[in-house]
Amino acid sequence: LIANGMEVSTDMGHILALGLKEYVGGIRHCEELRRVADEQGAFLIVAHPFRHFFDPVYFTRQGKEPFTLTPEQAAKLPVFQLIDAIEVLNGANTVRENVYALKVAQAAGKPGTGGSDAHSTQGIGTYCVVFEKDLASQEELLAELHAGRFHPGHGLLDDNLQRFTEASLAPDASG
To answer: What's the structural domain count of the chain?
Structure first.
């Protein structure tokens, strides 16, 4: 299945836009991207929303305060009001970042997705989105996304596909 999609760098982070029919100027502003997505029937997923949020301040987060929001507080951030789903399982994130994103999705009442974020062939399929039925077209993909008939998964490469839960990656999700 091949579908239209792009990762848009917005003023609120990276947003995966599935089903956009064409590029429209101004979508780097998340509110405009939401408007265009609604017009075109697209589905928006905030990608890797907490990447590096827990890094030591002296490393990649120079000059920033430590991240201290609870998942319930983070769920109220404006970006989560403008998207359809949250990428809770990302192959380039730490377990701690993924588990935190899952907790935020639960607090926000948003479904979660998974993605390998692969930059080489070895990473493809590490994490994925599992749909309830086989899909044959972009229209079916968008219908299933909008209906919420999917969940994040891992273990595909090991023939052990399972739903991502707080405990499924590692017993200790501290990092």
So the answer is: 1
